[in-house]
Amino acid sequence: MSIARNFYYLSLALLFFISSYLSAEMLDLEKFFEQDIVIENKQIDIPGYPYAFNPSIVRWKNSLLMSIRHIPNAKDSFTSHIGLVWLDENFNPTGKPQFLNPRPQSSRAPLRAEDARLLTVNDRLYIIYSDNEDVKISKGGFRVYVAELINDNGYFSIKEPECLSQFEGENKNLREKNWVPFDYEGNLLLAYSISPHKILQPRLDKSGSCDVVFSTQNNFTSWEWGIPRGGTPGLKIGNEYLSFFHSSVEMQTLHSNQKKIWHYFMGAYTYEAAPPFTITRTSKIPIVGDRFYNGFEYRPYWKPVKVVFPCGFIHDYNYVWVVYGKDDHEIWITKLDKNKLLESLLPVGN
């Protein structure tokens, strides 16, 4: 029997087991998906901003820099600010966050910047985020922006943010977000989607244009927990890139108090380090650790959710540290065993 068919039957058996488990007892995700990949999980508190969430992280100038998202007024969840804060080697803040203003002074629209990703390209620090500069909110108003971050004596500023609005398949009725940035030989590239793995190259000439440089098909049908979408930037590890994605599915669990709400999951995937950047391997089940889903039930910004939303990671020879937003109200970092993580990934059919 082929490996593909074996995995197909394994998926069916897993789904049957989940259904049987749910019929007998409410599903505890932390026990059901328990793995030895996850070594440690820690909440990062930002003094003065207890509900900051959806962080990204980068090692820059030999120090750790983290971005955060902050909603100043829960009654107006569309108003959203992005801040930057330095961390020590134990992932504790070493000062107050500095919030960025990507808008010209003439803009009349409130700040709506969301879910930044940080990436270094040729020792230059870039920020990629979603924003809506229209006074009237619409799905089509949200677009992906890219800009270089300039540090002048410890003060960060955004240099000429560019709205990426001209690309193949652009749709005025579609909200754009969660593009996956990565550095290829000093060039900033962006994965528009995971399946297909569609790669854009922004021209960065103030035209807002992106060129589709590669697009490869893959088979993500073995992932049963929603459509895989962008999460962290891709970082090169050996002869491949590694990134973490998110997906979501509506379900009842112990963590949702038996209510049917959206649950977000995290997985990992690798892709080739050279064009056309074909996806090669992916997680077989969600990456879940202690306190991923247990915790305080917050008043939702938009609707009740249980969220694990990865936006950045760093790594060394032995470990991977992934920062993620939890339940749209908290910042966490999880420490993973690097070798066990990579060994757990299964080949993806192309």
Topology:
Elements: H1 3-24, H2 29-32, E1 38-43, E2 53-60, E3 63-70, E4 81-87, E5 98-99, E6 114-121, E7 124-132, E8 142-152, E9 155-164, E10 180-184, E11 187-193, E12 197-202, E13 210-216, E14 235-237, E15 240-252, E16 260-272, E17 279-282, E18 305-306, E19 308-315, E20 319-326, E21 330-337, H3 338-344, E22 346-347
Parallel strand pairs: 16-18
Antiparallel strand pairs: 1-21, 2-3, 3-4, 4-5, 6-7, 7-8, 8-9, 10-11, 11-12, 12-13, 14-15, 15-16, 16-17, 17-22, 19-20, 20-21
Quickly describe the structure.
The chain is mainly beta and 350 residues long. It contains 3 helices and 22 strands.
Number of discrete domains: 1
Q: What's the total number of strands?
A: 22
Number of H- or I-type helical stretches: 3
CATH superfamily assignment? Glycosyl hydrolase domain, family 43
Q: Ends: how far apart?
A: 19 Å
Q: What is the general shape? A: globular
Unreliable stretches covering 5 or more consecutive residues: 20-24
Topology order in helix (H) and strand (E) letters: HHEEEEEEEEEEEEEEEEEEEEEHE
Sheet with the most strands, sense and barrel status: 6 strands, mixed
